């Protein structure tokens, strides 16, 4: 039975760090202290099959206007079984995240999943700016 929880005490920090730093395309080499600090300062969602953690996502938000979804993953052996959709539904319906004016995320490969939850390409990308320090971009 799948459980999605925002209880940080249930999170398997080692598993999250291993996935992000070794398997993800966006956080390769991320230090465990950075992972811990990012978890401490985000609303985190753990996905569990029985008691084993199989997925993760975190939301950076002010709980009033804006939220950014980050570090979303489902372990390889559990993909294409609906867990990603359940995770996104839990995020989008979380009581503390209702009535926000803007949501954001970045993805190289999961546009189809996020479209199901109302995400679209930026309306005005010319209005967006960024500073990227140490971010791995496979297209550079």
Layout of helices and strands:
Layout (H helix, E strand, L loop, with lengths): L1 E4 L7 H11 L8 H9 L2 E7 L2 E10 L4 E9 L8 H11 L8 E4 L5 H5 L25
Parallel strand pairs: 4-5
Antiparallel strand pairs: 1-2, 2-3, 3-4
Briefly say what this structure is.
This protein has four helices and five strands; from the N terminus they run βααβββαβα.
Notes on the structure:
By secondary structure, the chain is α+β, with helices and mostly antiparallel strands. The chain has a single domain (2-119), classed as Gcn5-related N-acetyltransferase (GNAT) (Aminopeptidase). The chain is built from 4 helices and 5 strands, in the order E-H-H-E-E-E-H-E-H. It has a 5-stranded mixed sheet with strand order 1-2-3-4-5, sandwiched between helices. The longest helix has 11 residues, at 13-23. It is globular, with a radius of gyration of 15 Å.
- What count of structural domains? 1
From N to C, what is the helix and strand string?
A: EHHEEEHEH
Uncertain segments of ≥5 residues (pLDDT<50)? none
What's the overall geometry?
globular
The total count of strands amounts to: 5
Would you give the CATH topology? Aminopeptidase
Helical run tally: 4
Find the CATH superfamily: Gcn5-related N-acetyltransferase (GNAT)
The fraction of residues in strands falls at 15-25%
What is the helix content? 25-40%
Overall mean confidence score, pLDDT: 94
CATH architecture: 3-Layer(aba) Sandwich
Distance between the termini: 41 Å
Q: Tell me the Rg in angstroms.
A: 15 Å
Major sheet, described briefly?
A: 5 strands, mixed
CATH class: Alpha Beta
Helix/strand/pairing category: alpha+beta
Report strand order across the widest sheet: 1-2-3-4-5
């Amino acid at each position: 039975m799948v459980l999605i929880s925002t209880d940080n005490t249930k999170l398997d920090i080692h598993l999250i760090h291993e996935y992000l730093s070794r398997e993800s395309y966006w956080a390769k080499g991320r230090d465990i202290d950075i992972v811990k600090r990012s978890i401490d300062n985000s609303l985190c969602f753990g996905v569990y099959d029985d008691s084993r953690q199989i997925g993760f996502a975190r939301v950076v938000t002010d709980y009033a206007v804006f939220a950014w979804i980050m570090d979303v993953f489902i372990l390889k052996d559990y993909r294409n079984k609906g867990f990603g959709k359940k995770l996104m539904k839990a995020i989008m319906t979380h009581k503390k995240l209702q009535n926000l004016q803007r949501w954001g995320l970045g993805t190289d490969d999961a546009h189809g999943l996020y479209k199901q939850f109302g995400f679209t390409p930026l309306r005005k990308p010319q209005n967006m700016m960024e500073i990227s320090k140490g971010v791995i971009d496979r297209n550079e």
